[in-house]
Specification:
Radius of gyration: 20 Å
Largest sheet: 8 strands, mixed
Shape: globular
Number of strands: 13
Helix content: 40-55%
Low-confidence stretches: 126-130, 314-321
Length: 334
Amino acid sequence: MPTLLYYPLVRPPQEVLHQALLYWDAIASVVPGDPGIYEAAVSADLKDLEERGLYHPVVLGTEYRRPLDDDAEQFPVLLQELGELADRPPSPQASVMDAFVFRSKVGHFLQGEIVRLGLGRRLGGSGMWDGAGLAASTEVQLLLLAALAQEVASKSADRAYTPYTDQRSAHETSLRPLAPATGVAAWRVELGRLMPMPAPATPTSEVLAFRDWYAAERERLMGATQTMLCELRREWEHPADVLERMRAGLKQAREDYQAAARASRMAWVHRSVSVTVGVATAAAGALVVADLAWVAGIAGSIGFNLATREVRPLFRARNEHPFSYLHQVDRELG
């Protein structure tokens, strides 16, 4: 199973952490390169999970993970978006530089561009965080960190990462199309009913125990789910065939997992967890399914919802868009 790559912050909330422990191989986040800042930014819980091999801090600057700076020409859409932000009429929200971006995450070229465009300023001084990066608006911060998550996921050769956030603004910033011509077709799949979550305040120790005790059930469910998403991306013209072919296996995996959840005596809830699946070979207007209602009915019988949308990736060619998850911890499915 892939590793959940949390963004835009270093520390994921507890619900996202539990999601990763149950339904992913591990969890990761991009961390500051400076050892002193790393110690302050990474929580004790994450360090404990790192010792267990379940948390992977991504430090930019290694062979496969570079900051958003190595070759600025690889990020034309990102540069275009920064330019459009700079050209907009000033607004109170955009002009407040209340967010922070570590220097190790954004290299020298982009730092210079952001400052030149008036979208940020370099921090200087003698404090721990001074000189470590840029002050910018929240909108600029989310734009950069969403692009960074996509870039790490596409570049890493030693681990399969999938971008994952609990902030709708960060998710939409990374996906919204600039114009119709820049969009790519995508599926939007709501998986919350397939993947129940431990109730808030459940101790992480109990989640870890469930992970170990019911490893077979959770791996079957996530293996079937990942296969279904990959098949929807590959056979985008025939979604009904994909779902009919996988219906029995997915339903059985879901029932087995639900039985394990009941046996655990833990309290469970259903949160909204949606994944955007970019269709690599389809133009924006090509993902038109005449029998979408029928396809959605098949999906509903298995335990998830399916719809179409248009997205635009922030990096490189349009056909390289990966999976991208949005976890809404404040939206409970009835």
